[in-house]
Amino acid sequence: MIYIYILNYCSWVVDVEGFDTSLPEDEIKEALTNQFWLCGGIVKVFLDDKDPKTDVLNSHATIVMVGDDAAENVLELNGSVLGGRKLVVKAKRFPGT
């Protein structure tokens, strides 16, 4: 269902690294949503799985967004701080859009 929705818009895949992984997953997703919501429409926030050796969440998330200027807007957040940590942000077009 998400795939059909985003094909109708200018869609982006945003990779985010560097956030604090000590928080519960739902709090991390909420913090990322609050950090990026002004950049465009957020379709979904995905967090990487936990490292099986350490049981610690990896500091990488993927955010699927829509909006003509979303990529330009999110790249302005590269180097911004979330929870005391500097974010690394990259964006690319969603395949097929």
Describe this structure as you would to a colleague.
This protein is an alpha+beta fold. It has a single domain, classed as Alpha-Beta Plaits. Helices cover 25% and strands 32% of the residues. The strands form 2 sheets. The protein has a 4-stranded antiparallel sheet. A hairpin with a 2-residue loop joins strand 4 and strand 5. The radius of gyration is 13 Å and the shape is globular. The N terminus is likely disordered.
Helix and strand topology:
Layout: H1 2-7, E1 11-17, H2 25-36, E2 41-47, E3 60-66, H3 70-75, E4 81-82, E5 85-86, E6 88-93
Antiparallel strand pairs: 1-3, 1-6, 2-3, 4-5
InterPro entries: Nucleotide-bd_a/b_plait_sf, RBD_domain_sf
Organism: Camelina sativa (False flax)
Protein name: Nucleolin 2-like
* Low-pLDDT sequence parts: 1-6
In the CATH hierarchy, the architecture is 2-Layer Sandwich
**How far is the N terminus from the C terminus?**
15 Å
The major β-sheet equals: 4 strands, antiparallel
InterPro entries: Nucleotide-bd_a/b_plait_sf (IPR012677), RBD_domain_sf (IPR035979)
Protein name: Nucleolin 2-like
Organism: Camelina sativa
